[in-house]
Each structure stands twice: as C-alpha cells, then as structure tokens.
C-alpha cells in the first residue's frame, strides 16, 4: 500500500484533494504551516499558555487500563524533554482554546482547516508515548506542530470485526492487533509542519518518536452531523450516565 504525498500545496489544493480522496494523504512543505510552527511549538508554548491543572494519560489507554494524573501544564511542558525509561505522559484531546483562547482563530488564519465541521484538539506527549490501534468514524487531519511521530496505517478491510476490542472509545472503534504485524499496514513518519489526512474507518496506530505537539481534528459535512455525529454524542451520553458502563478510554 502506498501513501500519496504532495509537496508545498496551496490551501485550495489541499481542500480539493481531501474532498475527493478516500485514501491517506501526506502533505509536506507548506509555507503557511511552517509559519504556524514558528510561533506554536514545544519551546514557546509555556510562555504562550496560562498555567493550569490538566489531566494527562499515563498509559496506553487503548490497550491497557485507563490511568490519569493531574499535573501543572507548565511543569508538564517544561519536563517533556526529560527522557526516562517507561516514561508515558500524554495530554490527549485537549481543547485548543484552553491552550490559548486565540489559538483556534490563529489556526484558521493559517488555513489549516480545509473543510467545515471541525472538532479539533491538541495532543502533547513525551517521547515513546503511543495511541493504540483504532479507526475514527470521521475524516481526520493530523497536523504535526512540533516533534516527530510514527504512524502505521491500514485499510478498513485489514482487521475483521472479530478482532475489535471490547473497550469503548468515543468517535472511534478499537482493535486488538498491532498494525506493525499486518501485511496490509504501512509505516510513515510525520515531522514538524506535516499534515496527514486519514480517511474515516482507516486503521491507524501512532507512536511519538520525540516529544510531540500534534493538532488533530475530525472533519464532517452537515449530512454526517445528522447521520453519524449526533448518534455518537447520544451514545457517549448514555455511556457516561450508565452506572454499569464497561471499560473505556474516558473513565478510570
């Protein structure tokens, strides 16, 4: 399986490509993305953000028991360069406006978002942190603002329903196989300024190769809001209020 790549595209070309594609696409060397990364990176963020308590993930929650810990955001950001054995610290799905109230606006000015209907968030983690095998129910754009990570990708048919994990995850479905062991999977590396388009229902698994700052967003049309987003919100609401809820990625 080959991953399509385009270099130094305009925002309009990105929008056109993603609208028509149902296979992954890696976009590199976009000047507007590079400009964004000069301002928003792991080195500058402690001075750009207000300190606050945040909840970080301390394990591979897609494959292991879900574990969280509350820490100071500034302490977390300043300590990301410290390398320790079995070090796993990941701020996952953190609202962009909580990092800085103008960050969503600044991101829009750099034309990172080629489609309407985005639910975007920040993923900031130490080296070697991982996200287990899963697919998302909506198209996904993964923008690497700083650092480097490996992404394994496999088409929807690569994993059967018998291999789905029992664990619950909002807007996604988890699976037990490691993509690195599948013949249909391919590994790519995304670096600072890269944008990776992952179509809905494509399996992926991610590992930080260095401390990493990623902005990832689901993208959906108005039709998809009615047919998929609203049912998933209702499903998640039912999950949260159920006193007998099964194992999940969102609760300990």
Automatic annotation (TrEMBL):
It comes from the Bacteria. InterPro entries: Cupin_8, JmjC_dom. This is Cupin-like domain-containing protein. PANTHER family: HYPOXIA-INDUCIBLE FACTOR 1 ALPHA INHIBITOR-RELATED, HYPOXIA-INDUCIBLE FACTOR 1-ALPHA INHIBITOR. Residues 83-245 form the JmjC domain. SUPFAM superfamilies: Clavaminate synthase-like.
